[in-house]
Each structure stands twice: as C-alpha cells, then as structure tokens.
Design goal:
The protein has 474 residues and is an alpha/beta fold. The protein has ten helices and 20 strands. It is globular. The N terminus and C terminus are likely disordered.
Length: 474
C-alpha cells in the first residue's frame, strides 16, 4: 500500500511516498549494566557490533529502566505506564490451589492494551521472541492475548534461569527440547541459538510488510551458561575462581570467562540481525532499539559485576533505585533517519518507548499513558517535550521510591520499616549519589515528597506506608 505517512503526534511530516511505515525491532536484554558495553566504557568484554550500532546511530546517557527488576519493567514497556500506575510493580509468582508454584509470574490483566495491540492496529505483524515474564501458559497475560501474532520463548522467568531449558512455548503451545535436562550446565539446545534462529525466520517471512519485533533476550542473566564455541573467545583471559553454585544456580569452572562470553555472544547475534536486515534491503526501513530491563545483578550465580565494573561506577545494582540499578544503555539505529555518531543526555525511561515506537510507526500515542515520546530526539527534528519528572516505586528490597526532576533525584528506602526520610542528590555534580543535600534544598525536597505521594494509584503490590504530602517544617 502506498501512502504519505505523518508523524502526527510529534509534529513531524514525511513528504516522500514511503510505501509503508518502518519496521521496528526492540531488543530488551536481561540484567545488562550501564557499563557493560564498549561504547559505554567497558574494557574487558568485547562488543564490536553494539559499538558499531552506537557509532551508526544514537547513544543515550540518561536512559532508565522503569523498574529495577525484570517483570515490572517489561509490563511498563508493554503498557506505557510507570511504576505508580502499572498493574505489575514487582516480580510476583503464581501458585495453584495447594500453594505450589506454577509456571509463569503474575499476569497482565485481561483487557490490557499493549504496544503489541497498538502496532497491530497500525497494520504491523507483531512478534515476541525471548523471555516474556508477564503471564504463564493459559493466563490472561499470554503473549497471544496481548497483541503478539507470533510468540516463542520462555513464558516463565524461573524457567529462563536455565539457558538449556527442557521446553519453550510457541504461540501458546509447549515444545519439548529433546537432549536438554534440568540442572545440566550444557545440553543439545542453547536458548540463544533458538532465539536468533526464530528472529531471522520472523524477519524473513515478514519482509514484505511492516513488522514490530520485540526481542527480550535473556543474556546476561545468570545462570552462567554458554556454548563451548563462545567460551573459547575468553579462554585464559582472566584470573578465575571456580563458582561452586548457590541459590539454585549452576556451577561454572570459569565464571568470568563465561559471563564475558555470554555478552559477546549477545553482541554477535545483534550483528547477525543487522546483517540480515541489510541483506534483505530493510536496513533503511528499520528502526532498531537496544536497551536493558534493569541494572546488573548482584554477585550471585557466579557473575562478578565488580570485576567488570558493570555499573560504570554508579551506585547500586539490580533491585535498587540507585543509578546503578536503573540507569541502563539505550542505543537506536535507523540509517538515513537517525544521524550517525550522536549522543543524547535526554532523560527517559522504558515506558517512554511505548509512545516513541507508536509514533515511529506513524501512529498517535493514546491518552492515559505516562510515557513521553522521544522520537524528536531520535530524529533530531521537532520539539522534544521533556517529562515533568520520572517516578519509581518498588515494593521489593525493603520498599523504595525515587523521583528525578531534571538533575535532582530523591530516594526513599526501607519503606517497609516505615522510613519517611528522603535523600536528595544533585546528579549534575554527584552522579554516584554519594552526598545527600536534602537539608540544603528544602523546596526541591518538598516537590519530590508531593510526587511520591500523589504520582501513583493504590496497589496490592505496594502495601508499605506512603508519605504525607504535606511539606515538612524546616
């Protein structure tokens, strides 16, 4: 179909007859820290394809995960809602009538309108390949009920802790993987091999129509598992102490090499995907976005994020609303549309991807979401609307809230213990959040206190006491 398409919500016009809206590929990786790519300062792990992607597109230095753990970030990406309004605000397991764990986490509610459904309305073929985490088999949150015409991968986050799983799910149907046994370090079918195979197949069969492909790949989440071929690249590279296993994760004789090899393997497959798009003549018709669901893991499962400086020197890791737990890489590439070699300090979060992608697909973002499109920043055209603030609430790890207003960041911790104190940091001078300046800036603190009280709806997932919005006396 030939048409003149309009980027209506951003005020940008495309006067040329483009024939169809662009393809969009969104890669959301699992537990990748702000400092784990070469283009973000990593020196021990090789990531040439992602570094090239950044050099050929735009790299963001102030992009945030909408939550510091997996499931809520994914829900916020899918719904465009921040953590004060999202139906899922923490990792939550599901149980049967006898109290036993079942496959899959708390599902998205029936009737949730996701980015997948919106893109389908715009005429896109939609697919998800990787880790879902927002509803198990038969639940209201299955991908097929959430706007994805094709789905393949793990529905359950616990299942995804093994890269040689016993089964995957294809369009709601279980596929057993013969030769993989629960608890084995290796097996016949490596998850990332399966994911890249399905990714290329989806692109091949949908190349004649616009597609939206959501790729929540599981690397580098532990367990530490990679193929023998991938591991060779880091043989003898680091001083090693064998990891003997804890908290249910598998042992590994060379954990540092395994962790680096997993990220380099991820990088390799991003390169394979970019090469396939180019070979099919889709390079300039495809917006590719790469980011992570939260900061790097604590040093469990054999991961050594201190050794790799995985947070890039930022405070905190996964599960924390400190910068290291929520600031993550964001790279976007769209040849001919995004100028090469750009860097942006625009502050944005995962839920902002929802309106950005819809507008890139020539649609208009719906009312009632929290996300703010940053398409003008991507394209370097039009007026970029700045969010009034970014807001986080997270019931896990003691209960936490955070608010970002410009360079001012307020952090409230230990909410489960009734803590009402807010720490305040000026990120323009103190990116590592070392010095609390709350006493020096009471007016900023009062603004943040008010947002922490009002920028949310009640949720069973967040039972901790909230703040009184009344400004405190100084």
């Amino acid at each position: 179909m030939s048409a003149v398409w309009c980027l209506a919500a951003s005020g940008l016009q495309r006067s040329e007859d483009v024939g169809r809206p662009p393809n969009v590929v969104l890669i959301l990786v699992d537990d990748l820290g702000y400092g784990e790519l070469g283009c973000y300062g990593q020196s021990k792990i090789r990531t040439p394809n992602l570094d090239r992607m950044a050099a050929e597109g735009i790299r963001f230095t102030r992009h945030y995960a909408s939550a510091p753990v997996c499931a809520p970030t994914r829900a916020m990406l899918l719904t465009g809602l921040h953590s004060g309004h999202s139906p899922i605000r923490d990792n939550g397991e599901e149980r049967d009538l006898e109290g036993r764990l079942i496959e899959g986490q708390r599902p998205l509610p029936e009737g949730t309108v996701t980015i997948g459904a919106r893109m389908q309305e715009l005429g896109y073929a939609t697919g998800i390949i990787g880790k879902w985490g927002n509803g198990g088999p038969g639940s209201t949150g299955e991908p097929g009920r959430m706007g994805f015409g094709f789905s393949y991968g793990y529905l359950c986050q616990r299942q995804a802790h093994n890269f040689y799983p016993t089964h995957m799910w294809r369009d709601g149907v279980r596929e057993d993987l013969e030769g993989n046994r629960q608890g084995n370090l290796t097996g016949a079918h490596y998850a990332q091999d399966l994911f890249i195979r399905e990714t290329l197949a989806f692109v091949d069969r949908n190349r004649e129509r616009p597609f939206f492909l959501y790729l929540p790949y599981t690397i580098p989440h532990v367990a530490l598992q990679t193929t023998a071929e991938d591991l060779v690249a880091y043989a003898g590279a680091f001083e090693e102490t064998p990891y003997e296993g804890d908290r249910g994760y598998l042992k590994h004789p060379t954990p540092r090499a395994a962790y680096a090899a997993m990220i380099t393997r991820l990088d390799h497959d991003v390169g394979v995907l970019l090469d396939r798009l180019k070979a099919l003549g889709l390079d300039e018709e495809t917006l590719v976005v790469f980011t992570s669901d939260n900061g790097p893991t604590h040093d469990v499962g054999g991961a050594d994020t201190v050794f790799f400086e995985s947070t890039g020197g930022l405070r905190g890791r996964k599960g924390s609303v400190w910068e290291g737990g929520i600031r993550v890489p964001l790279i976007a590439r769209w040849p001919g549309r995004i100028d090469a070699g750009r860097e942006s300090g625009h502050a944005c979060a995962t839920h902002d991807l929802y309106p950005t992608i819809i507008e890139a697909g020539m649609g208009v973002a719906p009312d009632g979401i929290d996300g703010v499109s940053f398409l003008p920043t991507l394209l370097g055209k039009g007026e970029q609307r700045e969010p009034a603030h970014l807001y986080w609430e997270f019931p896990g790890y003691g209960g936490q809230q955070a608010v970002l207003i410009g360079d001012w960041k307020g952090v409230r911790r230990e909410m489960g213990k009734g803590n009402a104190e807010i720490e305040l940091f000026d990120l323009s001078k103190d990116e590592r959040e070392t010095t609390d300046v709350a006493r020096e800036h009471p007016e900023i603190l009062d603004r943040i206190r008010g947002i922490m009280q009002t920028d949310r709806t009640a949720s069973e997932a967040f039972p901790m006491p909230l703040l009184d919005a009344t400004p405190r006396k100084q």
